[in-house]
Write a structure and sequence with these properties.
By secondary structure, this protein is α/β, with parallel strands linked by helices. It contains 14 helices and 15 strands. Helix 1 packs parallel to helix 2, helix 1 crosses helix 11 and helix 10 runs antiparallel to helix 11. Bound molecules: nicotinamide-adenine-dinucleotide (NAD). Nicotinamide-adenine-dinucleotide binds next to helix 1.
Length: 406
């Protein structure tokens, strides 16, 4: 069987989870990927992950601390899985593509539209696959929601609400997630929701919103020195899709004592409640003739809802992982689906489900909200994608001035 040799570049918090995704694929009998190499600037981290990979996958990937050395020496690596912090995504991707490799890159595709567009252009020029690792949409409830929408049973759609509020003043995972120039959490998380909106409803056209810092001081979990974030932790926006649906988006990881989330779609004939990503909650469909939950919704749709075989193999027949499944297994299943889609795209010569342009669109939607806050007006996503509007991103881009030669 033809296999794709992959180098995992970035073996930190999420790099480890990607390994668990590869292991989930292996357990499900999917054997088209060989994790051939692991690259991390930190040798200890890279070696720890290689040990873990050996346990999970049966063979120990070669370890590198230098991307250039791996690209120059490792002929078994046909593709690169970028799981580094986002400031580095575009340079790693461009180097890998120029060295003849296909690329899957964690979200956000890049920190700015300018650098993300460089990745897309480079991949197009070289005829390489560039995929965005966007995991949330891959779960059964989002797939079922999309099938409900495609079936038309909700009638004309008018409002979608995506709200995530709740948290405290703790550092969220890592200090870099609180600094604008390294990719703050106010960009990092809403990217997922922008992708969900476009997956379910099609392109976002117009955005009116702003980003802000809800928690001006954040405390690390280890009791170390507090940090003063200069990157937004929060974003609120009102958007319109080209299909004419209004979208309310709020992501605010603050607000003591309360935490809630909502993903709801309203149409003239009914409403759809979609449970949290990677949860075992039920999707709920409200129509004039009554309310259907979970598998009743799938049964109602019949042939109009079909899961692909890889998703069914790693996440079970309904694509959710099943009631009470450990969160880690469900998370690994979602990552497995995106990684298999990438490998199939490379080996079968077809585009991945979320390509570079798709990742760039999600980035542009979120930046449109930040740019809107700065300009004090609604911003067209196309203005951000074409580079006509960029003021918010300028000081992020300034640090990259000389990095990528055209
Ligand atoms: N999809 C999701 O659910 C999800 C969840 C968490 C993180 N992420 C994304 O994954 C990416 C990584 O996040 P993380 O939490 O693992 O970060 P992290 O800081 O834990 O790990 C990043 C790793 O990359 C390594 N690294 C940095 N620059 C490098 C380079 N040039 N070459 C090789 N290694 C390099 C670092 O040494 C570190 O080990 C980010 O883009 C983040 O947004 C996605």
């Amino acid at each position: 069987m033809e296999k794709l040799g992959v180098a995992l570049v970035g073996a930190g918090f999420m790099g480890r989870r990607h390994l668990l995704g590869y292991a989930a694929l292996r357990r499900a009998g999917y054997e088209r990927i060989d994790v051939a190499a692991i690259v991390d600037l930190d040798a200890g981290t890279a070696n720890a992950r290689a040990d873990e990979a050996e346990e999970l996958l049966g063979t120990r990937p070669r370890v590198y601390t230098d991307l250039g050395a791996m690209l120059a020496m490792d002929g078994n690596v046909g593709a690169v899985d970028i799981v580094t912090d986002p400031r580095t995504h575009h340079t790693i991707a461009v180097d890998a593509i120029r060295a003849g490799r296909d690329v899957i890159c964690e979200k956000p595709l890049a920190l700015t539209v300018r650098t993300g567009a460089q990745m897309v252009t480079e991949a197009e020029r070289a005829g390489r696959v560039l995929a965005t690792a966007e995991n949330y949409r891959r779960g059964g409830s989002n797939r079922l929601a999309r099938a409900v929408i495609d079936s038309g049973v909700l009638g004309d759609l008018f409002l979608f609400r995506e709200v995530r509020i709740g948290g405290d003043d703790g550092v969220i995972l890592s200090p870099w997630r609180h600094m604008k120039r390294s990719g703050s959490i106010g960009l990092d998380m809403p990217i997922h929701y922008a992708d969900i909106v476009e997956y379910l409803l099609g392109p976002v056209e117009l955005v009116w919103g702003r980003g802000f810092i809800a928690e001006p001081v954040r405390h690390p979990a280890d009791g170390g020195e507090p940090i003063a974030p200069d990157g937004e932790d929060s974003l609120v926006a009102a958007m319109t899709t080209t299909s004419g649906v209004d979208v309310h988006l709020a992501y605010i990881p603050s607000g003591r004592g309360i935490g809630y989330g909502e993903r709801v779609l309203h149409g003239r004939n009914g409403s759809l409640q979609i449970p949290p990503d990677r949860s075992d909650g039920d999707i709920v469909l409200h129509l004039a003739d009554g309310t259907r939950r979970g598998q009743e919704v799938a049964a109602f749709l019949g042939d109009r809802f079909q899961l692909d075989p890889v998703t069914a193999a790693v996440l079970g027949p309904d694509g959710t992982g099943g009631k009470g499944a450990p969160w880690g297994d469900v998370d690994a299943g979602h990552l497995a689906v995106e990684l298999a889609d990438f490998a199939d795209a490379v080996l079968d010569g077809r585009p991945p489900e979320v390509d570079g342009a798709g990742g760039l669109r999600a980035l542009a939607v979120v930046h449109a909200a930040f740019e809107s806050g700065l300009l004090g007006r609604a911003v067209h996503v196309d203005e951000v994608l074409t580079g006509a509007v960029h003021a918010y991103q300028d000081d992020i881009d300034a640090q990259f001035e000389t990095e990528v030669e055209a």
